[in-house]
Design goal:
alpha+beta, binds flavin-adenine dinucleotide, 3 domains, four-stranded mixed β-sheet
């Protein structure tokens, strides 16, 4: 297999690099080291996310892979991978993972024409920001046991219940929601997908704060929230199948590995410029071995991301589920190893988030704290392993509950 880019692909890559190189210089100090915290924890960070989204929207980059009849230009998977890689390397905001990454593919797969015409263009322009209303206090891994209801009354649905861990729910204008439209149903049957505004009467958003007070996650309560029936996406009661497709989009991000490469470059720079016990850290055989291991892992990860694109291209959707699980599992555990190692070699200074004594601008300690959650969100890594065993290796499927 030839991994080299074609001339055209190389030119596209250079265009992306030029854009991100220039635009990331506009990041406000509040964006810090980026990630979810950079986007959602401050107004300035979120404004920069919106600014970048509009810029990318103007260039058609948020919708490049969408079919032409949905406003996209059917760009090749490879073009999207290059975009994700370059954006990941620059740790750039502006691609709303919930809107662009999850809800848009759901709409393309299941919405009617009117909904596609109404909801897709603002996402493509980088003007619509969503949060994801799936998890509940008693429904996370076992999402199909969720109890939030959406009951049809005339030309409306009335929503009651609670969602939790809603990332960016305090900033997003919209939510895509999974709720039970048939209150007598259980598990996957009787669930439906909805689009809704976050400022409707009856919606209460309560922050789930970090220990240091930063606000990224939320609980969202619904008390008789009334939404138009036209905002139910797909066939009523068939939302589980639609959601299962979306899950693979949540797990298939290719940008994570190029982001890891950037972190690795920072670690390499650190060991080359730091003295320990009278010699440069980069001459320590243990440091060299560990960094080589991390480099190999990031290369393997990159190949896993390419494998997902290849599965997409082939239309092998069972293979895609396995590959997406592999990539999610591998990327999150690699990020944990990388940040564990970096904070270990930095010693006590590694705990500083800011200031002249904070190595690598505090980025590693932020990563260290953030990636603890990465093996939980988007489906825990235990669940990914179960799915790989079942879909990839053909082992018997385990039932969640009798
Ligand atoms: C930082 C963060 C952000 C998040 N953002 C969002 C969001 O924006 N929107 C949203 O809807 N949700 C979000 N989530 C929720 C996330 O999807 C759930 O936390 C996740 O699916 C796990 O569910 P749970 O927390 O209920 O844990 P549980 O499902 O209760 O799991 C507890 C433990 O049991 C293990 N386990 C459970 N079932 C099995 C099984 N069958 N086999 C083996 N092990 C099992 C799990 O792996 C885990 O270790 C977020 C979570 C985090 C941590």
């Amino acid at each position: 297999m030839d991994f080299r880019l074609t001339k055209e692909e190389e030119a596209i890559k250079q265009e992306f690099i030029k854009f991100f190189d220039a635009e990331m210089k506009n990041a406000p100090p509040e964006f810090g080291n980026g990630g979810l915290e950079g986007i959602y924890a401050t107004d300035e960070g979120f404004e920069f996310h919106k600014y970048m989204a509009r810029k990318m929207g103007e260039r058609g980059w948020l919708s490049m892979g969408w079919p032409k009849d949905c406003g996209g230009r059917d760009a090749s998977i490879m073009e999207q991978v290059i975009f994700d890689e370059v954006r990941g390397y620059y740790n750039a905001p502006g691609v709303d993972g919930f809107a662009v990454g999850m809800f848009a593919p759901t709409l393309i797969a299941g919405a009617n024409k009117e909904q596609k015409n109404r909801l897709l263009p603002p996402i493509a322009r980088g003007e619509a920001f969503y949060c994801q209303g799936w998890s509940e206090p008693d429904a996370g891994s076992d999402l199909a046991s969720l109890t939030t209801t959406a009951i049809r009354e005339g030309d409306h649905y009335i929503i009651n219940g609670q969602k939790t861990w809603t990332t960016g729910g305090h900033k997003a204008e919209f939510m895509f929601l999974l709720a039970r439209t048939d209150p007598d149903s259980n598990r996957g049957k009787g669930l439906s997908v909805f689009h809704l505004r976050m400022d409707l009467p009856g919606i209460e958003i309560r922050p789930l704060l970090y220990m240091d007070g930063k606000h990224v996650y939320n609980e969202v309560f619904f008390n008789n929230v009334k939404i138009p029936a036209t905002d139910m996406v797909g066939v009523e009661g068939e939302g589980w199948n639609l959601t299962r497709q979306t899950m693979n989009f949540e797990r298939s991000g290719a940008g994570g590995f190029s982001g890891a490469k950037r972190y690795l470059e920072k670690i390499i720079d650190y060991v080359k410029t730091t003295q320990r016990d009278g010699r440069t850290l980069s001459k320590d055989p243990n440091a060299r071995r560990k960094i080589a291991e991390l480099f190999i892992a990031s290369e393997v990860g990159q190949t896993l991301a390419y494998k997902i694109s290849w599965m997409h291209q082939k239309g092998d959707f069972m293979g895609l589920i396995t590959a997406a699980c592999e990539s999610k599992l591998f990327s999150t555990e690699m990020a944990q190893q990388m940040s564990n190692y970096a904070t270990e070699i930095m010693g006590l200074y590694g705990q500083l988030e800011a200031g002249e004594h904070a190595p690598m601008d505090g980025s590693m300690v932020e990563l260290y704290q953030f990636v603890k959650g990465a093996t939980i969100f988007a489906g825990t890594n235990e669940i990914q392993r179960n799915l790989i065993a079942w879909t990839g290796l053909g082992l018997p499927r385990l039932k969640f509950r009798p």
